[in-house]
Specification:
single chain, 273 residues, alpha/beta, Rossmann fold, Hypothetical Protein, Haloacid Dehalogenase-like Hydrolase, Chain: A, domain 2, 2 domains, 7-stranded mixed sheet, 10 helices, globular
């Protein structure tokens, strides 16, 4: 019945240290060997997710930058949707970000993660992949080939940024939170759910045969697209309110996705080599 498994990473498949654990690795490898197709759907950069994929040891489709990029298992780009360069140039301006300078601004280009200052505290989220940023003068960037703009900061500061975006761009942008301190901006055509539909059509599987897991606001479309959505017990309360009928499962820090997959596929719920 279940032919495709689509899963978010942070707060969902990854543990509290933003890494994959052996139980999860053993589970996904077993299911793939049984013919199940995996899809990783995340706000992370493709280069970052490729490293995590290699540790998982599977060959999933990769939906990254919240759907602005889709890569086939062989790393071929099958979908890309960039922000217009003029909008990118505006998104990095103090008039949007705030004159106070507290919000960290990031640009996700095809092969690099650009950031407006050194922020070594962010690297703990990328231990498995080893992916790192390049500090750049974003105000001088031409805005070309940018999949996503990411703002990192205090939720109160990000709320102001969100208001600025809504006032200036309206529905021209897709603005969402991946974490309370991470505000993400893509073109309005982008979402994890739309990207998942592209993948499902490519592999010839109906949404009714797709399982999906998520925990935050950027997972709404993903969970609404899959025929069998599940929400983490540690999910954002706003997501729980938004999708009250989506079943909740275990916590990410207890390998909740792996345990639930073993129940769905009637696998022994034990650690295997």
């Amino acid at each position: 019945m279940y032919k495709v498994i689509a899963t978010d990473l942070d707060g969902t498949l990854l543990n509290a240290d933003h890494q994959v654990d052996p139980f999860t690795v053993a589970t996904v490898r077993k299911l793939e060997s049984d013919g199940v197709q995996f899809v990783i759907a995340t706000g992370r950069h493709f280069c970052d997710v490729a490293g995590i994929r290699d540790i998982l040891g599977i060959k999933p489709y990769l939906i990254t930058s919240n759907g602005a990029r889709i890569h086939a298992p062989d790393n071929t780009v099958i979908h890309a949707d960039d922000l217009p360069p003029a909008i990118v140039q505006r998104l990095v301006q103090p008039g949007i970000v705030g004159e106070h300078g507290r919000v960290i601004v990031n640009l996700f280009a095809d092969q690099v993660w650009l950031i407006d200052r050194d922020a070594p505290e962010l690297l703990k989220f990328h231990q498995d992949s080893g992916f790192t940023y390049e500090v750049a003068e974003l105000l001088a960037h031409d805005g070309v080939d940018i999949a996503k703009v990411l703002y990192i900061g205090d939720p109160a500061d990000l709320a102001t940024v969100e208001d600025n975006l809504a006032r200036e761009f309206g529905d021209a942008l897709y603005v969402t939170y991946s974490l309370p301190d991470c505000l993400e901006v893509m073109t309005s055509n982008v979402s994890k759910g739309r990207a998942l539909q592209i993948v499902l059509e490519r592999v010839g599987v109906e949404a009714a045969h797709c399982v999906a897991f998520g925990d935050n606001m950027n997972d709404i479309d993903l969970l609404e697209t899959a025929g069998h959505p599940f929400m983490m017990n540690n999910a954002n309360p706003d997501l729980i309110t938004r999708l009250p009928n989506v079943p909740r499962i275990g916590n990410n820090f207890e390998a909740g996705v792996a345990h639930h997959l073993r129940k769905l596929f009637s696998l022994d719920d034990e650690l295997t080599a």
